[in-house]
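Per your request, structure below.
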């Protein structure tokens, strides 16, 4: 249904309508050309003009094609037949002083070489002041046998370009195509608009699962697809929220037995109590990090325009105040649409990792086609290729000691990738040729 409540025709009906209108327009243009344009009148040549060409003094024409004289071994063919052909051959043989058998008039009879065209040409010849009765209509080839047996042939010279009649037809077809172009554009835009909206909605879903549902409008097939898309989006949203809520509930409920364990280890020897307490502290830190991760992923934040260079520069300045070695390269201003708090956490995690494991961090921002790119480099030992993707898994740490001071909880890079993909982008890691690690974040503009 359209916004006004009127039913929308199906995609099939609209496409059939467009095809029908195109065919009707083509038929109308053809009929118009058939009745509006005059039939093409071929060029005609008097026998005197043909004879002068044989004699080596061809006339000069301004509106007709020139006559050319050639020579060949065989007579031209096929011979033309008609009521006036014997008289024309006889007059041509008499005027040129040759036998009748040595004169051949060849050509092909087309749809225009009928009596009506002959009368039209005869009238034109009389108006032009031609007193000679006999003439030939192109296309033709007149051959006269020479004493050595070869044949001299006179014929109109045919060019490569279009004739005047063909030029008029081409002009009419171009004008008709220009006249139909706006109609075709309107129909094409009308048919493609719902599909374009559908594609934008799919991209929006990839960036934000809580995006507004797709509006149900357009052809019936598009409405059915949009309804199925909205149902899929709702199921995905519920699935993610249910799983996230379950993880949060589990992490929250684990705090109760941890608290009981803290009370129960009070009676243990000091040596055992210290080790168990350290494990409990580590478990509680992991639970706290998990709850923070769940809280951030379920929080619906408003996305606003954000200038990435300013954000990175402020983070580098804050870390430099605490003694960290950070550097922000001067680059272009790139603005993206995103959650300021989430993006701030994303880049803070990457900068902290670079400082912790590489001794320092260098950041830069630039554009790459339709994406904003943020690169953060360090001069550390890098990461084995086999672990480049595993480090993004939750709670995975390459530090075997499991020390929170060196290895952390193991959620930092998982949070980074989750935020980047939640904005329709991604984050990758790769080892630099000169040593160190490079984190590359892509965010759609």
């Amino acid at each position: 249904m359209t916004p006004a409540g009127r039913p929308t025709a199906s995609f099939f009906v609209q496409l059939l309508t467009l095809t029908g209108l195109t065919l009707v327009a083509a038929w109308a243009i053809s009929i118009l050309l058939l009745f509006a344009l005059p039939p093409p009148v071929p060029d005609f040549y008097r026998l005197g003009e043909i004879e002068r060409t044989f004699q080596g003094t061809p006339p000069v024409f301004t509106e007709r094609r020139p006559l050319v004289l050639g020579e060949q071994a065989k007579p031209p063919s096929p011979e033309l037949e008609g009521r006036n052909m014997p008289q024309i051959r006889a007059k041509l043989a008499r005027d040129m002083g040759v036998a009748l058998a040595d004169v051949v008039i060849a050509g092909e009879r087309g749809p225009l070489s009928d009596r009506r065209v002959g009368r039209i040409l005869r009238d034109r010849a009389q108006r032009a002041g031609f007193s000679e009765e006999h003439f030939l209509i192109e296309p033709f080839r007149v051959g006269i046998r020479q004493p050595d047996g070869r044949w001299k042939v006179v014929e109109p010279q045919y060019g490569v370009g279009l004739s005047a009649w063909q030029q008029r037809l081409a002009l009419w077809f171009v004008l008709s195509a220009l006249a139909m172009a706006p109609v075709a554009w309107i129909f094409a835009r009308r048919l493609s608009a719902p599909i374009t909206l559908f594609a934008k909605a799919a991209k929006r879903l990839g960036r934000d699962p809580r995006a507004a549902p797709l509006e149900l409008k357009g052809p019936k097939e598009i409405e059915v697809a949009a309804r199925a898309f909205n149902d899929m989006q709702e199921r995905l949203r519920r699935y993610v929220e249910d799983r996230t809520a379950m993880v949060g509930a589990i992490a929250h409920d684990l705090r109760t037995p941890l608290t009981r364990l803290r009370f129960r280890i009070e009676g243990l020897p000091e040596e055992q109590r210290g080790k168990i307490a350290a494990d409990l502290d580590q478990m509680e830190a992991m639970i706290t990090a998990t709850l923070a991760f769940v809280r951030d992923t379920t929080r619906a934040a408003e996305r606003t325009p954000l200038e990435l260079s300013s954000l990175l520069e402020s983070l580098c300045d804050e870390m430099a105040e605490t003694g960290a070695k950070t550097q922000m390269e001067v680059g272009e201003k790139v603005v993206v649409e995103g959650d300021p708090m989430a993006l701030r956490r994303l880049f803070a995690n990457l900068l902290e990792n670079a400082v912790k494991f590489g001794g320092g961090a260098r950041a830069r921002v630039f554009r790459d086609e339709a994406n904003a790119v943020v690169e953060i480099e360090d001069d550390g030992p890098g990461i084995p290729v086999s672990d480049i993707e595993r480090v993004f898994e939750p709670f995975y740490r390459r530090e075997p000691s499991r020390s929170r001071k060196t290895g952390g909880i193991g959620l930092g890079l998982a949070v980074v990738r989750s935020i980047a993909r939640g904005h329709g982008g991604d984050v990758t890691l790769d080892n630099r040729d000169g040593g160190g690690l490079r984190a590359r974040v892509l965010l759609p503009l």
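The first strand starts at residue 44 and ends at 46.

Regards,
D.
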